[in-house]
Amino acid sequence: MSRVGRVLQLAVVATAAVVLLLPWAATATDYKVGDDDGWRPSYNYTAWATGKDFRVGDTLAFVYTKGKHNVLNVTGDDFKNCTASSNSLLRDSGNDVITLKTEGKKWYICGVRDHCSKQQKLVIEVLQTGTPAGPSGGPAPALAGLAAAAAAALVAAMAVL
Ligand SMILES: *[C@@H]1O[C@H](CO)[C@@H](O)[C@H](O)[C@H]1NC(C)=O
Ligand SMILES: *[C@@H]1O[C@H](CO)[C@@H](O)[C@H](O)[C@H]1NC(C)=O
Ligand SMILES: *[C@@H]1O[C@H](CO)[C@@H](O)[C@H](O)[C@H]1NC(C)=O
Ligand SMILES: [Cu+2]
Predict the structure, then answer these.
(1) How confident is the model over 32-39, as a mean pLDDT?
(2) Which of 125, 130, 135, 144 is the most exposed place for a label (fewest CB within 10 A)?
(3) More confident residue, 35 or 157
(4) Distance in Å, CA 22 to ligand 4 centroid
(5) What pTM value is reported for the model?
(6) Distance 99 CA to ligand 1 centre (A)
C-alpha cells in the first residue's frame, strides 16, 4: 500500500474510533432520590432536584423500607392531586431503580396513605443525552479529551506525508 493510502487509512481509523467512543464518553448518572434521606415524607424533593442535570439514560433510585412506602409514576394533574393515574406502574421493592428513557417532565409520588400530601413527591425535567451545559459538567472533559486525541492522530498522520 502507498504511503498516502496508509495515512488515509490511519485517518479513517482514528475518526471511526472517535465516532464509536462518543456515546460511551457521555456517561449516565445514577441518582439516589433524597440522597441519605432516601424516599420519605417531610423532605423537600423539589429542593433536592434543583440544580441537578437529569438526562436520558440516567437512573433514579427510590430507597426506603419495603412496605412503608412505594413509588407511582403519575401524570402532572395527578401529581397535583396526589392521586394514582390509570396507567401508573406501582413499584414497591424498597429499592426501585428507574431508568429515564425519554425527555420531558416526570412525576412520581408515594401512594401510601397521605404521604404524597406530606411532600413525598418528586417532579423532574429530563433532558436529552449529551454534553451538560453546566459549568462542572461531568462528561464534557472526557469529550474534550477524545477530540484532542483525534486531532493529535490526524496531525500525526499528516506528519508522515
Ligand atoms: C422546597 O424547596 C423549593 C426550592 O428550594 C422551595 O421553593 C419551596 O418553597 C420548598 N417547599 C417547602 C414546603 O419548604
Ligand atoms: C408509568 O410507567 C409505565 C412503565 O414505564 C408506563 O407504561 C406508563 O405509561 C407510565 N404512566 C405514567 C402516568 O407516566
Ligand atoms: C383533582 O381534584 C379535583 C378536586 O377534587 C378534581 O375536580 C379534579 O378532577 C382532579 N383532577 C384529576 C386529574 O384527578
Ligand atoms: Cu410514603
Answers:
(1) 98
(2) 135
(3) 35
(4) 40
(5) 0.75
(6) 26
Cα distance between residue 137 and residue 52, in whole Å = 11
Q: Tell me, what's the pLDDT at 40?
A: 98
Handedness of CA 108, 110, 115, 116 (dihedral sign): positive
- Domain identity same for 40 and 61: yes
Q: Are residues 56 and 97 in the same domain?
A: yes
Q: Could you give the residue ranges of the DSSP H alpha helices within 26-134?
A: 45-49, 76-81
Q: 8: domain range?
A: 1-28+131-161
**pLDDT, tens digit, for every residue of 95-133?**
999 999 999 999 999 999 999 999 999 999 999 997 555
